[in-house]
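Reopening closed ticket. The problem is back. First fold of the pair:
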Amino acid sequence: MKHNETTIRVLYKDTDQMGVAYYANYFVWFEIGRTEFLRDLGMTYKDLEQNSIFLPVTEAYCKYRYPARYDEELRVVTRLNMLEQVRLGFYYELIRVYDGRALAEGETTHAFVNEKGKPVVLRKQNPFLWKILLEKVQENIES
């Protein structure tokens, strides 16, 4: 798996009176994509937290190209694009399903920390997870 694709629908609560999605919702949709990416790897955020690994966001970016509107079906494409000893990064594309138009793209960076918020070296804390993530990053580099 080089990437994960998750389909969502723009809900009424996510829009303004003109039916346009509120800009902060894009980061919620990125989180959905990231969560499903990890689930496809065979782990959940809950699994990570039970192993004392937390992934707070340290950076977030979104480039808005076209608005998402009420009731549109969207595809969130998520890729792991960076892995370092104490952090990792994801790249996202938000695509409108009915016409394939790219509405937005973004990135988030996350630190690996323990339950006290102290950075951890993932390779030492969880060698199994480190190996899986490293393979995914290498797949994306080679393609």
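Second fold of the pair, where the issue appears:
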Amino acid sequence: MGEASYLGAMIKTLIVEDTSVHLDQLLEALKHQEHIYEICATASSVESAVRLIADHQPELLFLDVEIEGGTAFDVLRALDVVPTQIIFVTAREEFALEAFRWAALDYLLKPIDAEILSETLSRLPQQPDIKASQLDMLHSLLAQNVPERIALHTQEEILLVSVSDITRCEADGNYCKIFIEGQKPVLIARPLKEYDQLLSKHGFLRVHQSHLVQQRLVRSFVKTDGGYLVMDDGVKIPVSTRRRTMVIDALTR
């Protein structure tokens, strides 16, 4: 979406939602946002969504994951030009949170919460356009396939990085610094807690309030000076007192 859309002009918006109560919730919540969202059309099926998106070329698309006649991915595959700003809407909370975070895509859970909607919309002007590879990743994750890569949103671009190449993560205020083998660290506008949730099933260990490490890259645990880890690259990572027993247990299993 172009920057001009956020400088006072109305933002052309299209909503794909096949449940009237959720459509009404979203429409009402959009009325109370900082910017003016011009609803150019609403669609309730794959067929109508494809036609209306092609006709109106919206700047912003709210896209329900499961709609009449198929899914959001059926809509996106049928389009010649995919909108660069999409907010997915879903009721499938049991795994949606993790899938969307892996792909670094914006989403809303039903029922729509106005405050969360506002937070989501506030991020859009600073985010790079959506890549086809992110959509492919999301599709795969929603099919419950094990992720091999993660999308990382920096201020300049979206990086798709192999999970096996991430060595550690470090908190930097409300940001997180991701260390990647053979590359410079990247700074992400997400808290460390979020990456702890995503990566803990993939061999990562939270050893300190500010540090998350790939367990297979730990060379040793030094008990002196309060306790710290030495990584394969020689970097020393502190271990918090309250996590010390857990870390030792994890390393000596």
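Update: turned out to be a display glitch only; the data is intact. Residues 67 and 196 are 32 Å apart (CA to CA). The radius of gyration is 21 Å. Please close again.
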